[in-house]
């Protein structure tokens, strides 16, 4: 197979027994310490390319690799999982709760365990959704562009009239961790009514809304 050009890496604990590759540098030091304390040689890709291709990742995996930490922008399917298996790898971890980019069947076929990171960004992402809701209802982005373009000439009764959220209905598709946290913020903070759709009944959320929790 044609190898992509060599990719720049940063190495931690070079004498570690297990070779672990991270396709990106990630925040903080705790994950690095956790790996190096557990006898891993960690190689972090430092290539200044936002999204790595499958060929780039094949080059990073190389001939011997025990595990990879990857990102949601990467295409983790049969090609990468079979390469990881050939390199002696047993684990892949996706730095995300969602795993749309991971072909779990292919991972299973190749005996690679897959990890994700649920829970850590629940409230953060719900706050971001609440921010976007307010920005849309209150036309913050449009108004900001208007001001910066120097178009503001004084207050007018119709200028950027927004929508009141209080008493309106918010719709949530997928009332899981993030959807439910967002729903609670909109109900508690803005006294909105809720309508949701999910494959399962969101019992805790329903109890929260009806005040029975
Ligand atoms: N910055 C971001 O934008 C950001 C950050 C973190 C997570 N996410 C995304 O948010 C998603 C949700 O994360 P979570 O922790 O709340 O997961 P979760 O598993 O707790 O919630 C997902 C919910 O969606 C429901 N669902 C699945 N298929 C459905 C369908 N076809 N119709 C309706 N509902 C369906 C599930 O039953 C579940 O309740 C992740 O998949 C991830 O891609 C985005």
TrEMBL record:
GO molecular function, one term: glyoxylate reductase (NADPH) activity
Leader peptide range in chain numbering: none
Residues annotated as domain D-isomer specific 2-hydroxyacid dehydrogenase catalytic: 33-142
GO cellular component, one term: cytosol
Alphabetical list of PROSITE patterns matching this protein: D_2_HYDROXYACID_DH_1
Record bears the keyword Chaperone: no
Entry keywords, A to Z: Oxidoreductase
Superkingdom: Eukaryota
Gene3D superfamilies linked: NAD(P)-binding Rossmann-like Domain
Pfam family, one: 2-Hacid_dh
Family statement: Belongs to the D-isomer specific 2-hydroxyacid dehydrogenase family.
Listed name of the protein: D-isomer specific 2-hydroxyacid dehydrogenase catalytic domain-containing protein
Native species: Paspalum notatum var. saurae
